[in-house]
């Protein structure tokens, strides 16, 4: 066991320097009044508990004070104060530690060194078991019974049970209060649920109306498609009208044989080429005649004669061709008339292609016209069906009413979930309540066992028997 071996006091109140060697047992300081007995106790408290505060206890005409405690294990605790400095010094195993700036607290190392602490009785009172003041009465006898009970309970550890009982009672009160609130809420929720018994019927009504709305949306979509097809059909009718005009303009072409026309055109082109060749030959003959007239050389003349003979032969051939050309002139004139009447022959192929394209479109139009007739029949059916919804304007009010009911239904579902959560919480609180009752019963049994062991009333300090113990426990249970 560690105890204070000696105390040295320097410049503390009336003590300039004092040293006291203490016993490991009980130490009593006696002497005449005003000789510094109380100052020794104050010096001890100042060093052990950092009390009192301030620097007024420094001896007059001194600028510091110091208290040194030497413990039985060789540890020294030095408490020192000047006008500007406030410190603890701890000398342990030859090593010194200095503590400053601790304020109203005590350094933990100092507390662990001397191990002397006050016992906290309650928030307003504490008890020092190691020191007793001057003129202080016998231990606890001058204190009220409630303080005695608290102090003894604190000393022997019964305060733990008291605190546990207080906490349990507090928890029980909270649980009972919460349970009451939950029961009230549960009752209110049950009333709301009863008042909303029509929700299932409303749900079926909502599902039915949703089906009607979906059917209505499908009909509206079908109507939009029909309108689009109708617009397309109108556009096709316009195109058909334009193509018919083109066909009317091209009816004259049907009176001509296209193959004969192509053959005549080919013959005309050939005759044109032959006429050009004849003109070239005539020009060549004139040039050869000029050469013969200007030539005096016989050989050259013979050569030219030979060429002339050849040219004559060619001329004969060309003359025959010319005869044929005369025969063909009538045909050419006929072709010219045909050409005059068919100036648009160069675009006939394009027109034919357009006609083919028009025929394809015409077939497509016929198909779309058939679809149009089918759509018109569907529109007629749709109109007949839509007449069944003459009161569709009132549907928005019905939808709003349904949405309100849906919102209420969702709230009811939320209430149901809250109800289940509250019900579960009530079950948990009931289990906690039962567990607390079991713990209280265990604490009471432990308390009863402790009272039987010590046979002393914690309040008045008198001896107690079995009947008084039962009475004390009954009072605790009632509380």
UniProtKB/TrEMBL annotation:
Coiled-coil residue spans: 199-253
Keyword Protein transport: no
Keywords noted in UniProt: Coiled coil
InterPro entries, per the entry: P-loop_NTPase, YhaN_AAA
Domain YhaN AAA: 4-87
Keyword check for Oxidoreductase: no
Pfam family, one: AAA_27
Family in the record: Belongs to the SMC family. SbcC subfamily.
Complex formation: Heterodimer of SbcC and SbcD.
Name of protein: Nuclease SbcCD subunit C
